[in-house]
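User: Second chain of the day. Same drill as before.
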Amino acid sequence: MNSPLISLALPLALAVIMFGLGLSLSVDDFTRTARQPRTVAIALVCQLLVLPVIAFGLVLLFDLPPTLAVGMLLLASSPGGTTANLLSHLFGGDVALNVSLTAVNSVIAVGTAPLITNFAIDYFEPEAGASGLGLQFGKVVQVFAMILIPVIIGMLVRRLSADFADRMDRPVRIGSALTLVLVIAASVISGAADLPGYLLDVGAVTFVFCLLSLSVGYFVPRWLGVDIRQAIACSMEIGIHNSAIAITIAISVLDSTEISVPAGVYGGIMLPVAGAVGWLITRRHTVARTEEGAGLNRRIRH
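Assistant: Same format as last time:
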């Protein structure tokens, strides 16, 4: 199911995507987290600790095959993507918080993704782990290069010419999306015979995981006193995983297209699910504000 073309094209597509992320970032996006540490800490705990636990529980509940189970944990360990910023904007979230969380998560994922993925391999495929499958130091360096170097280059471009970075932002986003779609399409076509089985295996679990990720990202911050705009931002950041990173690691680093399947399926369902959740959240908030206003008017009249 793998091919040299896909193995080469995926890292290039990811590099373009992460370069586009870098074009939208500045050093202030990292330092901004120090000005709202509580909200950032809540979001990071949900992203780095709660989601892998949820994914692990779902894998056991749905009794996934070992390779797909590893793919689910790899997906859970991937950071949020730039799409989260767009959805947060659409539903009234704190986009500045999204940008900061994406920046910090992308850096932290360099360390946490290998740890979580290696745990999954050791747990679900101990024989494969003993034979060398996993993210060893050299492979971690590959992940570091694929994720951070393009981001740093993009940030340098923005620092040297913010106007150029702003002009390039939209074309790079479109180009990276098209590149990723083409590469994923090539991967799907090469494994078309197995696709229906994969959808049956992981379709339900990825849907539930997506729904739970978005819900955890919204309700946990709200229960802990985070305001509505920041909670929406956290929901989109935690629920919209950067599936491109998970797919690239699976195919180009772990040399397994099957491990990439959960991330590929997730990438196809997360936008409509996130859109529906975002609409429900904003509708609930609008209804609550309307009822509150109506109650206030009644009290004024009386």
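DSSP finds 13 helices and no strands in the chain.

User: Great, on to the next one.
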